[in-house]
């Protein structure tokens, strides 16, 4: 059973005879344009593989629509700018601050214990707690007690 497009004109409307005639003419023109479009779309000799039909009016319509609706879903506001900053740059700055503070803590020499700098790189400082006697014996020696 073929699909039938329902009529856009109802019998019980309050349209005049002239308005109904204009609506019917527009519907007829629309049907003719649709048939022509489908004929061109399925013509294997015109488009090679078929399927794509360049319609300059459609391109103009899409270009005008996209250009006029740039801010349909997005409007730049101060709140949006702050959200962008908080989601993009703030995590990098916070991470950079913590890495910097950790490196400064590692690089600054301790007044109590003198250990070579290489012994602290990529090793946690909280893995072993030393008493004063152990600290004194580790001065100027290579440390291997941290994993």
Automatic annotation (TrEMBL):
Highest taxon listed in the record's lineage: Eukaryota
Membrane topology listed for this record: Single-pass membrane protein
Record keyword Nucleus present: no
Keyword list, A-Z: Electron transport, Membrane, Mitochondrion, Mitochondrion inner membrane, Respiratory chain, Transmembrane, Transmembrane helix, Transport, Ubiquinone
Keyword Transport: yes
Transmembrane segments: 81-100
Localisation per UniProt entry: Mitochondrion inner membrane
GO terms for cellular component: mitochondrial inner membrane
Family annotation (Pfam families): NDUF_B4 (PF07225)
Family, similarity comment: Belongs to the complex I NDUFB4 subunit family.
Descriptive protein name: NADH dehydrogenase [ubiquinone] 1 beta subcomplex subunit 4
Organism: Rhipicephalus pulchellus (Yellow backed tick)
């Amino acid at each position: 059973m073929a699909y039938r497009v329902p009529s856009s004109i109802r019998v019980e409307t309050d349209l005049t005879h002239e308005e109904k005639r204009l609506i019917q003419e527009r519907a007829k023109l629309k049907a003719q344009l649709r048939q022509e479009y489908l004929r061109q779309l399925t013509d294997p000799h015109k488009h090679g593989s078929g399927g794509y039909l360049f319609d300059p009016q459609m391109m103009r319509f899409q270009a005008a629509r996209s250009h006029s609706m740039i801010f349909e879903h997005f409007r730049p506001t101060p709140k949006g700018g702050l959200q962008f900053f908080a989601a993009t740059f703030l995590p990098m700055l916070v991470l950079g601050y913590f890495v910097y503070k950790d490196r400064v803590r590692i690089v600054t020499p301790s007044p109590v214990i003198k250990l070579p700098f290489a012994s602290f790189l990529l090793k946690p400082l909280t893995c072993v707690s030393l008493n004063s006697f152990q600290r004194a014996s580790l001065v100027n020696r290579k440390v291997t007690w941290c994993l």
